[in-house]
Structure formats: C-alpha cells, structure tokens
Design brief:
single chain; alpha+beta; two-stranded antiparallel sheet; 3 helices
Length: 109
C-alpha cells in the first residue's frame, strides 16, 4: 500500500508541474502578443518611440529578458516581441515570439 501511494504521489506531482509549466508558457505568449500589438498600434499612430510602448506593455517579462522591436517598411509596421530561454522546472524551452503586422492608417493592427 505504501509503494502505491508513493508512486501515485510522484505521478500527481509531475502532472501538476507539467500543468503549471504549460500555463506559464501560455501566459508568457499572451503577454508577448499584447505588447507586440501595443507597439504596432503606437507605430501606426505615429508615436515617437513605439518600442518603448511595447516594452512597457511587457510588464514583468521585460525584467526577465523579453524584448520588443518595431520595423516600419513603407506603409506597413511589424512589431515583434521575443522571450528567449523560457524555463519550466529547469528545462529550457526555445524562443517564444509573437509578430504583429499592420498597415499604417488602418484602425486595427
């Protein structure tokens, strides 16, 4: 009975760690897309430094090494937010990136 309980406990602990890791990755991705969208919107509106607007929208991810870049190419704006080396329980996952493309003078990025 004790061995079965120990195996069950370890299995439940591993499942909980996996669920929390996936949730952390999803929340990081959502924050990246939000900051890229804000940076693209700022560039469309003609703000002087849209990269700073995106970096402000990153919130706590900015302190963890996430970054936002904005490239304006003619009538198009591309904002990209990247978070490198997101770690889940000691395992490093590759880059997490969200890219938003928008046309200047449009209402929605």
């Amino acid at each position: 009975m004790t061995v079965e309980l120990a195996i069950g406990f370890v299995t439940i602990a591993l499942m909980l760690a996996l669920v929390l890791g996936v949730a952390s990755t999803v929340l990081a991705r959502q924050s990246l897309c939000h900051s890229a969208s804000e940076a693209a919107r700022a560039a469309m509106m003609g703000v002087a430094n849209p990269t700073q607007v995106g970096a402000t929208a990153l919130g706590s991810l900015a302190h963890k090494g996430a970054s936002v870049s904005v490239v304006e190419n003619g009538e198009w704006v591309e904002a990209r937010a990247t978070y490198s080396g997101h770690a889940i329980s000691g395992l490093t996952i590759g880059d997490n990136t969200c890219t938003i493309k928008a046309k200047k003078d449009s209402l929605v990025p």
